[in-house]
Specification:
Blueprint (H helix, E strand, L loop, with lengths): L3 H7 L5 H7 L7 E3 L5 E3 L3 H4 L6 E7 L9 H14 L4 E5 L4 H5 L7 E2 L2 E4 L1 H5 L5 H21 L15 E3 L9 E3 L10 E3 L1 E3 L4 H8 L3 H9 L2 E4 L5 E3 L6 H8 L6 E5 L4 E4 L14 H10 L2 E5 L4 H16 L5 E6 L1 H7 L12 H21 L4 E6 L6 H12 L4 E5 L1 H4 L5 H10 L16 H11 L5 E4 L1 H12 L7 E4 L19 E10 L4 E6 L18 E2 L5 E2 L3
Parallel strand pairs: 3-15, 3-16, 4-14, 4-15, 7-10, 16-17, 17-18, 19-21, 20-22
Antiparallel strand pairs: 1-2, 2-13, 5-6, 6-13, 8-9, 11-12, 13-14, 21-22, 23-24
Helix pairs in contact: 4-17, 7-8, 7-10, 9-10, 13-14, 14-15
Length: 555
């Protein structure tokens, strides 16, 4: 059986200019990165005044070590629609180097449902993440230089939330002391690093609608506080213009293709457990403007990625999904039912029944809280039995939701036709989209609404520090912003060990901060980290390159 990377390397891609021409992008709007990828000038959106395509969101159950195949299903659904003669365009996030070298080993789909060039997409791509990291760290450097040069803005060196970033899982950098070495080497202070995808600059890039909007958002970043407790912004530090200069090309969406030649925009990559977890608004709008069907995905499970896609991205961009696909596997549901990873291939209807509430709660949230039409996509494995598949279908239909089998990993677009057909049917189902909370609620009330309505928690506990921060942010005028929850992806709760659909638990908010440029409040829960660490056996140990430059080990 061929590996994902072997399948990708055997593909013969269509020249990217032909992919672009197929959806109406002329040469004047393309900046080529070789023959297989290109950046698209965002000014193209000004020329697109016709009807918009249908927006299809792909999300999933809470992830497990068994895997769910959300990106694989997203790509396969687009290819399935293309195989049915529909004009489909994909919009996905860019992978972070952290997970590539840490756990995943790659994040461009799998099997015969991938985006290519797979190696480039997973490793550096068009340099967007490097530009984001450089802009983030420029602000950090200018902030510390301001302190070194006399601190005219009276910055409180004990209250500087802005961190440096690096696009790698490096727990050693979570907490550092810098500025050591003497008077001319900087002012010593406690500091730390986040991973690049957790940077507010990443969130801003993905939410910006133009260069002017990008610059304005960057200027609103709260980088520090002065000794009186007032926020000091990137605009106050005169950093926004230079940061925008670093990001002007990164703002342009990247165009690639699937293995079957379906156009794919891959742009931006905020994590969904510590950021808002969606590709850029620019890329989504391009997919909607240039295709009849725009298929996008949100990170991790629907309690994180989909909630933030709907409550943050859709709210800020004025988008409304026409249909939602929730991806699950029988194996992952059995894991939620308590089965060990090495026993997941054995039929176990009792464990499957115990794990199904995880899927059903996501279905209920999307249909009842957000009012959206939903289909469940079961990513099929050869070990799935007819009885197991029938049980999933029966429980979903009890909630008025159909199930479609997805065999895209093995069959590509052909294996996605059944799912594509069900999605097309679903698009005729009227929805009544609403948000999980209103912006007029207090910060505490918005967090409580998410915890109770989406996680099904019994309530929220705020640490004294979080309560103090909320009071301060409300007093500074940030109280009506939406909320971005930073929470473990593995559970509805803030405890990664509570699988399935737990009840009678409370969410603990330990810290709250403002991302004023992105336009949301971040609430950190449990022990979620904004700088992940590498696992005991990193995927990097399996990645190699031969003397011809051929990469191996990317899954």
């Amino acid at each position: 059986m061929k590996s994902d990377i072997e399948i990708a390397q055997a593909a013969v891609p269509v020249p990217i200019r032909d992919i672009a021409a197929g959806i109406g992008i002329g040469e004047e709007h393309l900046e080529y990165y070789g023959n297989t990828k290109a950046k698209v000038d965002f000014n193209l959106l000004r020329e697109q005044r016709g009807s918009q395509g249908k927006l299809i969101l792909v999300t999933a159950i809470n992830p497990t070590p068994a895997g769910e195949g959300k990106t694989t299903t997203t790509v396969g659904l687009a290819d399935g629609l293309s195989a049915l003669g529909k004009k489909a365009v994909v919009a996905l996030r860019e992978p972070s180097l952290g997970p590539v070298f840490g756990v995943k080993g790659g994040a461009a789909g799998g099997g015969y449902a991938q985006v290519i060039p797979m190696e480039d997409i997973n490793l550096h791509f068009t340099g967007d993440f490097h530009a984001i990291g450089a802009a983030n760290n420029l602000l950090a450097a200018m902030l510390d230089n301001h302190i070194q040069q006399g601190n005219a803005l009276d910055l409180d060196t004990k209250n500087i939330p802005w961190k440096r970033v690096v696009d790698m899982n490096d727990r050693q950098l979570r907490n550092v002391i810098d500025g050591l070495g003497g008077r001319m080497q900087g002012v010593p202070r406690e500091d730390g690093f986040d991973i690049t995808v957790a940077s507010e600059v990443m969130a801003i890039l993905c939410l910006a609608s133009s260069i002017a909007d990008l610059k304005a958002r960057l200027g609103r970043i709260v980088a520090a506080y002065n000794r009186a407790g007032a926020p000091v912004t990137a605009g106050d530090l005169k950093a926004a213009g230079a940061m925008t200069a670093l990001l002007k090309d990164a703002l342009k969406p990247n165009l690639v293709q699937t293995l079957e030649g379906t156009p794919a925009f891959i742009h931006g990559g905020p994590f969904a457990n510590i950021a808002h977890g969606c590709n850029s608004i620019m890329a989504t709008r391009m997919a909607l403007a240039l295709g009849d069907y725009a298929i996008t995905e949100a990170g991790f499970g629907a309690d994180l990625g989909a909630e933030k896609f709907l409550d943050i991205k859709c709210r800020l961009a004025g988008l409304t999904p026409d249909a939602v696909v929730i991806v699950a596997t029988v194996r992952a549901l059995k894991h939620h039912g308590g089965v060990a990873k090495d026993q997941l291939t054995i039929e176990n209807l009792e464990a499957l029944a115990a794990g199904l509430p995880n899927l059903l709660q996501h279905v209920e949230n999307l249909t009842q809280v957000f009012g959206l039409p939903v289909v469940v996509a079961i990513n099929v494995f050869p070990t799935d039995t007819a009885a197991e598949l029938a049980l999933v279908e029966e429980r979903c239909r009890a909630l008025g939701v159909n199930v479609a089998l997805s065999e895209v990993w093995a069959q590509g677009g052909e294996g996605g036709k059944a799912l594509a057909t069900e999605v097309l049917r679903l698009l005729d189902t009227p929805g009544s989209f609403s948000f999980a909370y209103e912006l007029s609620l207090s910060i505490e009330e918005k967090i409580e609404a998410i915890a109770r309505r989406i996680y099904h928690a019994s309530g929220v506990d705020f640490t004294p520090q979080a309560a103090q921060q909320i009071a301060a942010l409300t007093g500074l005028g940030y109280g009506e912003l939406p909320v971005c929850m930073a929470k473990t992806q593995y559970s509805f709760s803030d405890d990664p060990a509570l699988l399935g659909a737990p009840t009678d638990f409370r969410i603990t908010v330990r810290s709250v901060k403002v991302s004023a440029g992105a336009g949301f409040i971040v609430a950190l829960t449990g022990d979620v980290m904004t700088m992940p660490g590498l696992p005991r056996v990193p995927a990097a140990e399996r990645i190699d390159v031969d003397e011809n430059g051929t990469i191996s080990g990317l899954f």
